[in-house]
Amino acid sequence: SAVISQKPSRDICQRGTSLTIQCQVDSQVTMMFWYRQQPGQSLTLIATANQGSEATYESGFVIDKFPISRPNLTFSTLTVSNMSPEDSSIYLCSVVGSSQEWYNEQFFGPGTRLTVL
Amino acid sequence: SQKIEQNSEALNIQEGKTATLTCNYTNYSPAYLQWYRQDPGRGPVFLLLIRENEKEKRKERLKVTFDTTLKQSLFHITASQPADSATYLCALDAPMGSSSASKIIFGSGTRLSIRP
Q1: How close A28 gets to chain B, by Cα (Å)?
Q2: In CATH, what number does B4-115 get?
Q3: Could you say which of B18, B23, B25, B103 has the lowest number of CB atoms within 10 Å?
Q4: How far apart are CA B48 and CA A70, in angstroms?
Q5: Structural domains in chain A plus CATH codes
């Protein structure tokens, strides 16, 4: 299985500022996913991040608002830019298992709880 | 685009009974379907995966069925316990544009409460 850590675990930010969330995986993975989970809602995929290429964004999400870095196979960052209260959510990093035992199983980090005032 | 519906937003049952959760999907047929458990303040945790050519899969007190004709999966917890109380999410793979890779998309979840 993959163990994923995220920093920060939570933050309270002012409107108009930006926050960068870090995701660290204990093994090398090809694809990393960033999700958003708003209060009482399910997970919505923001983007898929491959090492060495630009992230692929889902409909409704753009790079200027959610820039992503993927400098190596164990690390990624998601930045929430020019924040507004509507960005208040839990942001989750995820990877898909690649070994035969864990193939297609998705592992999640603990999440970053963001509150924008 | 793919749409996933989990019919019940919340389900309350008596301890010891079997809990049955439903997941329906539309449009294309996924190669596999997954069920996750999510506790408050935590990320989802994988429970079971069932492939398109499998009718049923079991793991301890959990059972998942997959009917590709009805485009439906049922998730059962037998001999339910208060510790089973959580939100259960259905998820399936969806293609990523022209790439052969796939992404996982999630249903809205069913909040299950088991009362003693």
Answers
A1: 17
A2: 2.60.40.10
A3: B18
A4: 29
A5: 17-110 (2.60.40.10)
